Amino acid sequence: MQKIYIAGIGQTPVRENWEKSLKELAGEAALLALQDADLGYPDGIFVGNMMSGTANHQLQLGALMADWLGMHHREGLGIESACGSGSAAFRAAVMAVASGELSTALVVGVEKMTDSPLSEITASLATAADADLEVDLGVSFVALNALVMQRYMHEYNWKTTDFAAFSINAHANAVSNPNARFQKAITMMDYERAGMVCEPINLLDASPVSDGAAAILITSKKPSSGKTVSVAASASATDTISLQNRPNPLRLTAAEKSARAAYQQAGISPQDIDLFEYHDAFSIMAALSLEAAGFCAPGQAPKLANEGEIAINGRIPVATMGGLKARGHPVGATGIYQLVELTLQLRGEAGKNQVSGARWGLAQNIGGSGSNITTHILHQE
Fold it and tell me: What fold, for 5-118+209-219?
């Protein structure tokens, strides 16, 4: 298998993009990545997206974006894996280039959620759950996470305010990210006053509905200039779609397995990771991800957060550009935003949010309530 390098990156600001269509939004990020790489058109394009069929009434995203970008007659694929669609598309591209089938590939993650009423988006998000065992019984996606959070608090004796540090950290980091949805710091008082969405999840525990696109161009040829960032590992695993079928719903088994496989591929351990872009769609997922990736024992993630260990200058910096909570969570694009942000950090281009001496970065993208999880490790050589 050939080594894979990050040649170019691009991203759009996460917000409500009323003035742009799905393909215009994705095209903007794609062109930025192509310009950054300066390698011409790639051999293929892989597009990660979850709900364009329902929210935008548009499928065939691989062909759509190849056409829009002028990449006629090249390979184009659309890939769906719920909120993990972006990293699933990236993994597919990595396998295609590593195998030698392609020499370069463009990966675009895009989601345009504000075109539809919130009720329709809520229904679309619920399609990541088990239709027979969960959705047909009236359980929304936020409700599933609320059930997990309630059980976690009961099992490990935490209070709701013990989760505030995850959101406070994310918002603090987003202040210096021009592409973040919420560029404003929050306090414990803000968290305590936040409206309840689904007990115990409040507004500041949950990521926002957003539009956004991010793109990465990968290649098997080592770039000749600048800091070289390579893909050190790519791994994926699944779990039961329904929470009720898991022996322990407080363990992200797919995250554990994909992280373990990624560490083995890269030849490193959690202690070698300099920063972690986790999937903090809800505060409880932030906690479970830290534990599953090996940064603390089960039930101890809130302690890690409250002791400041997840800050930019902490032991394991997370959500360094705001994460899903404050940068925003355009679901099919999230996995690519994470990898773009890791690349900025490893290039030393993260500005005020730069993690000093960063050389190893971990990104973990979650589909469903933990049913499909992809882990990537990037390395600055």
Answer: Peroxisomal Thiolase; Chain A, domain 1 (3.40.47)
